Amino acid sequence: MEKKKTQIEEFERNIYDIYDSDSIDYQVKKGLTEDIVTEISESKNDPEWMLGLRKNSLKIYNEMELPKWGPSLHELDMDNIVTYVRPKASMTDDWRELPDDIRNTFERLGIPEAEWKSLSGVGAQYDSEVVYHSMREQLLEQGVIYTDMETALREYEDIVKEYFMKLLPATEHKFMALHGAVWSGGSFVYVPEGVKVNMPLQSYFRLNAPGAGQFEHTLIICEKNSSLHFIEGCSAPRHNTINLHAGGVELYIKEGATLRYSTIENWSKNMLNLNTKRALVEKDGKIEWVSGTFGSHITMLYPMSILKGENAKSEFTGVSFASSNQYLDTGSKVVHAAPNTSSTISSKSISKNGGNTTYRSAVTIMPQAKNSKCSVICESLMMDDLSRSDTIPVMDVRNDKADIGHEAKIGRISEKSIYYLMTRGLSEEEAKALIVRGFVEPVTKELPLEYAVEMNRLIGLELEGSIG
Residue ranges of the SUF system FeS cluster assembly SufBD N-terminal domain (predicted)? Predict the structure, then answer.
């Protein structure tokens, strides 16, 4: 019998692709100039030092070149990017006060429902500004601060000034410099010493405007022996022009503190996603990264942990899914800078219909990091012979008393497994979906139930299609 080839067609992104055409109150001109940077700063009433940081970042941006490795960014033309878009909404703590179109967007995405069921607080950003922010009274009484970055800059300027872009200096790379020049929105979290936040906080970032960039900044400080789970979600409708996301995430985990930072990114396939995330972990502290990367045209994302204190720990668990016209270059970086530190990296990727995934990592064991341990596992699953997957791990070990392991697996989906499942009554599409869900199960099990369901739904959308 002639064997028919499976064709998995592009899916309709349904709720994610609904575009609000009348939501813009004000925007700067396209392009990137000192006048535009100053205009953004003045609109926010930045203190003088922040304006200086923005202008210096712009200077560095103009002096730096595009990265010479990874996916080509030739489609990015900053002369056609609008770096600041203010929506027709003022920040509120009542969903009912938002304009109908913006409120409906967040309701379709399930954000108010998630807040009601399982979150301690929610921040929701629309284009360049946070439009909704709320936190449970109990956390206020414990001294937890959770607010948008602009409010933090006004009300907690000394704390912001001490930490802002210290982990992510503009000199880090060209898009960190761009971020420093035009950042807007984002979240600020401060957890006092000894406070355990039992239910997660969530920030959701929605980029609606065509041809715009989103540059939110997230700054989290977990003081000694505190703990927090922070969830970040992102989405955008699809346009016929390039959109840009270059956010920045700085995480400070003090002695004995624990932070879990979970992300589900679901950008549209016209998005260049060039996000940067970094955590500094002190003695006996722990950072846990859980990352799901879906959508986008190009993603370059490598969350980094700097294990500064003795016994500090880092765990990274991530999955990415690339289809046609997508190049997802993801991974993780760890620097062991103290004795007895440990890290694990577990990365999975799936590619179909010519999608391109690359796992890229860098692990550095410094000379003083005696008795450190690191385990790296990366697995790639290709759904067809059109797709591509590469693995580029780098290990830089500078002492001889470290325990380092690396394992990599790249393979195609097993026809034998599909056939077996079809003999048990499953269709070919159901069999593939079951195999893929089993493949990513180590990631989904790390998420709260509602978000595991969301990730499984995104996987289902990616796999949705016809069998012919």
Answer: 132-202
